[in-house]
Amino acid sequence: MKKNCLIFSQIMTVLLIMAFPLINLGQDNAALKKLEGSWVGPLKLRNIELRLVMNISFNSADSAIVTFDSPDQGVKDIPTSKVNFTGDSLIVESSRLRGKFSGVIKEGLASMTGIWKQLTVSLPVTFTKSEKKIGSTRPQEPRPPLPYLQEEVVFQNPSAGIELSGTLTLPKGNGPFPAAILITGSGPQNRDDELMGHKPFLVLSDYLIRKGMAVLRYDDRGIGKSKGSFKSATTLDFATDAEAALDFIKKRKEIDSLKVGLIGHSEGGLIAPIVASQRSDVNFIILMAGPGLVGEQILLLQSALIEKNKGESDESIMEQQKLSKDIFGVLKKNPDNKKAEDKIRDLVARFEKKNSSDTSFHRLSEDELNLQIQSLTSLWFRCFLTLNPEEYLSKVKCDILAINGSLDLQVPPAENLQAIEKALIFGGNPKYTIIELPGLNHLFQTATTGSPEEYSKIEETMAPKALEVIGDWIKKTLGR
């Protein structure tokens, strides 16, 4: 297998996960009308495949509008900044993505074949015409008419001085109803926890409300309609957002304030016990692939499992683990980002020199290295690296359900569930249930290998058995 210099394992996205307003190009090119419609092409980078969709349409003034979608990342209507169509040649650029497609139209308009270039990465891609809308909805996503009420809500986080936006779903009737607050995982997430073409929190919310529960889900700070800055926030900051959501929902007359709980996925499964450890008014928490280990341990386990799944050799994995440990050590010893960056660059340079004679070795480009260093030295990463869930789990006194999929490669189930149980026992809390669900991945989809590469390819958003475990446990817990 091809060695690489990835500092820590992550889902390697080809497109920047950002949505921007639609831009009309104002082109008046009659020839371009032959290509009107949606064209889809797969982009493959290091064994990960993402679909890129090019949409070509015309407005009432007969001017072209060309946009890109990345359905597997839940992003659409990304504007383009330049379109040049001459003969059988098409060039489309997006300054927002810092990307460009250059290709040739095949005879009969059967396909467009060319190169997608973004930053320093160049990938071959063939677009083919699609007769249907790409990545519009997944089978489990609820469709109207819906048998419950939905309300757009806004609430304040006074400690951060920001306004957060979300959706409160309520059963029909007078109530008061038990309620759950959904807390998203790591990365910039909207209220649906949307990623890789799936909306897990939309599906979970729909399931719970049909069971008689009110549900609040909200956009991360700085994302969607929520205010504030995402990139300058840490896990501890996000915990104050969850507290603000808790304060808001408990004041609603439709809500039974004695039956309110938190459900967190991935990083949200760390945020939930942080809040519950500090608040006595949390009735229950559910950790969906929540971490039990310190961040550094999770990252090393995650990296090894994902690379092993890709077929990397034990030797290559050991080398990358050593590099990661050295870099994490630098971050812990050097709070100054400039000093940390210089030392990280030195470690990477030595690693690359050591592997320079290996023709299979992939050397990081300067842009790739810069992006990695930017992530590594961010406030969030520095915080997550040393954050210990045990500190909070041992102080939680309410009922807890911790679930993981047996195929989870991002938050390995055995090690993390064991650590969660150990912390709860240490804290003297017997009110817990721990379940490892066979055959499910990090997103609780029914999977084959558990690899992040599968997420977008699986039509199922959340396995019914995972939904049932959550619903049944809440019913039993609240009914006691």
Q: What does this protein look like?
A:
With 480 residues, the chain is an alpha/beta fold. It folds into three domains: 30-130, Lipocalin (Beta Barrel); 148-294 and 387-478, Alpha/Beta hydrolase fold, catalytic domain (Rossmann fold, 3-Layer(aba) Sandwich); 296-384, no CATH class. Helix content is 30%, strand content 27%. It contains eleven helices and 17 strands. It has helices at residues 200-209, 235-250, 268-278, 295-309, 314-333, 337-354, 366-376, 379-386, 390-393, 413-426, 464-478; strands spanning 37-45, 48-58, 64-70, 75-79, 82-86, 89-94, 99-105, 111-118, 121-130, 148-157, 162-171, 177-183, 214-218, 255-265, 284-288, 399-405, 432-437. The strands form two sheets. It has a nine-stranded antiparallel beta sheet with strand order 4-3-2-1-9-8-7-6-5, with no helix packed on it. Helix 4 packs antiparallel against helix 5 (314-333) and helix 5 runs antiparallel to helix 6. The radius of gyration is 24 Å and the shape is globular. It starts with 36 loop residues before the first strand and ends with a helix.
How would you briefly describe this protein structure?
The chain is of the alpha/beta class and 480 residues long. The protein has helices spanning 200-209, 235-250, 268-278, 295-309, 314-333, 337-354, 366-376, 379-386, 390-393, 413-426, 464-478; strands spanning 37-45, 48-58, 64-70, 75-79, 82-86, 89-94, 99-105, 111-118, 121-130, 148-157, 162-171, 177-183, 214-218, 255-265, 284-288, 399-405, 432-437.
